[in-house]
Design goal:
The complex is a heterodimer of chains A (206) and B (530).
Chain A: H1 13-48, E1 55-56, H2 59-64, E2 71-80, E3 86-90, E4 94-98, E5 103-111, E6 117-126, E7 134-139, E8 145-147, E9 152-161, E10 176-185, H3 191-200
Parallel strand pairs in A: 1-7, 2-10
Antiparallel strand pairs in A: 2-4, 3-5, 5-9, 6-8, 6-10, 7-9
Chain B: H1 12-17, H2 22-51, H3 62-97, H4 106-128, H5 153-181, H6 194-225, H7 239-273, H8 280-293, H9 309-321, H10 323-337, H11 346-369, H12 371-377, H13 381-411, H14 417-443, H15 458-487
Helix pairs in contact in B: 2-3, 2-4, 2-15, 3-4, 3-5, 3-6, 3-7, 3-13, 4-5, 5-6, 6-7, 6-8, 7-10, 7-11, 7-13, 8-10, 11-13, 11-14, 13-14, 14-15
The chains are: A alpha+beta (206), B mainly alpha (530).
Chain lengths: 206, 530
Amino acid sequence: MASTDNTAPKGGRTRNGATALVLLGVVGGMVGLSFASVPLYQLFCKVTGYGGTPGRETAEQVHAAAPGARIIKVRFDSNVNHNLPWVFHPVKREVQTRVGEEVLAFYEARNISDRTTTGTATFNVTPFKVAPYFNKIECFCFTEQTLKPGQEASMPVSFFVDPEIFDDPATAEVTTITLSYTFFPAKPEPRATAAPEGLTAESPGS
Amino acid sequence: MSDAHHDHHPKGITRWLYSTNHKDIGTMYIVISMIAAILGGTMSWYIRLELMEPGIQFIDDFQFYNVLVTAHGFLMVFFVVMPAMIGGFGNWFVPMMIGAPDMAFPRMNNISFWLLAVALVLLLLSALVGAGPGTGWTVYPPLSSATFHDGPSVDFGILALHVAGASSILGAINLITTILNMRAPGMTIHRMPLFVWAILITAILLLLALPVLAGALTMLLTDRNFGTHFFDPGAGGDPVLWQHLFWFFGHPEVYIIIIPAFGIISQIVSTFSNKPVFGYLGMAYAMSAIGVVGFVVWAHHMYTIGFNVNTRAYFTLATMVIAVPTGVKIFSWLATMWGGSIKFEVPMMYAIAFIFLFVVGGVTGVTLANASADLVLHDTYYVVAHFHYVMGLAAILAMMGGYYYWIGKMCGRQYPKKLANLQFWVFVVGINILFFPQHFSGLAGMPRRIPDYPDAYAGWNFISSVGALITIVGTVLFFIVVWRTFASSEKVEANQWGEGATTLEWTVDSPAPFHTFEETPDMTGRQPAE
């Protein structure tokens, strides 16, 4: 900066340049933090069960938790993104279960198009606050699912509700939990071709 | 001490295009802000005309309605308030108030301004390509995703914000460096005028908040065009991540808008009360506290996404804490006026109106801070009324007050006092009739961002639109005042406000010479500026 020589009373251009460099570093750091927030955010949801992200447990842990006496109702919900030509619904709409008991439930999915498609399911539970107490042991949503044209498949999920749900004052009043899945195409197709076709293949879910 | 080029006084178009002079660049910022204000204001009046009665009157293309709402928000936030306060008054008066000859990086100052001009053109282009961005200024995905906004409109909008953000970041670096390094000897940090304090805090907020917006916008851009899935739940992304990033920027942004206004109001109240500001250090650190706490309250904009009760309790509490330093500022302004020899010149009238409107907006803000109440009021006109009072109207009143306060220093001529008085009353009555009824329609449940509404909301909407018509008259009067000021032959003296105006800009001629404070003033023995 040509004119800084006589504009800065004490120090001049080097001091101004150093200040500007530090400030630029702050800007760079904040940009980095905003991108770092993506993995941090996912980690945060997994650890805290935020936004209804259920926990994932092994079969050993379920036996460690003593089954409680109380009964809780679990409802099953299913949705399909309109870009995936599938029909997807739970076999039973709801089950009554004793807390701490392992439950095995099934969904059914059918590919109604004439090509092989691969889907992946996102999931959550509502109310969101019960997520830390809702544990999945095995689930079709942990991996991608591929269906040939017209193929139908049964998709199992096993889970248990932690009996401690009734010790937490925030969740003690819960009597019904809804487990929800949404199937999306595993590899989103180019939108120019996918969108119009997807509209005709849209499924109401169940 | 001067280089040869310092005597050079550029003329014609190159004086403006190539300008490195803080006063000329400040003037250009104020002009671009006025142009954007006419555009953004016209859009809002068109919206109010549509909403004057139930049913569809003028806008039968609802995407276009959404585009109007979006462009109004973008223009007012990024191209009216920020350029006028930070680029305009900040450029003009920060160097003069600290006794510096210019900004630390005069050529970077030039590029800051012209980037902003480019950004404005890009934003206007976004409405002309395709269907226009109808996303609201919050640009939430999935509405802003390629599925619901195909075509290049949103991409143009994103680019406009990127460029405007780069402009503001460069401007902020320039202002911080100037304020930290180029103060006159004896003017310690604790003796700077409060306007300089306000701009320093604002610039720091800009530096911390804008890169987050830039990062989020980049993610949205790559989601739309390059196959990433930051906000696409189908591939493991989450649209709520956008809301977190956007509001981590968005909440400090509202303080970026209002803190310079605090600075202007402090100078005006002190000048026309003929007293130093009551509790100078308290004022400075209240602004700092507002800036710090402003970074940890963002989620109060998104209470409806399903936070658990502890998170809601935290954000409710943290939000309410902001009322404390804000209250310190309000009471200090009142205490400054208390016992002062008050002159009700037009800038002082604007300052008092600012304090009144800011308190109204602040009170509704405390209401909205309650997560439980906000679940009901979210996305209603109550929120619209709240943020227009607390940052829209308050900021515009501070800008007009600043204009009347400094226009004599900037152009050397006296504004027409009677006309300015009339302009003040018409404008202030207009904006209150415009926005106060929106509290009532909002409490009754009227949702924001809709072109039509049930007949039950007709009454308050009609009154609100009448207020908009009065505001149009007030705005036209303002531009007549601007024209009459520049056409006036009445010159003002160096210190037109008398002994209450103690800051350094009043020690140089009016209009301020092209170069000021080439000899650095010594502030060691003198009374602190304010």
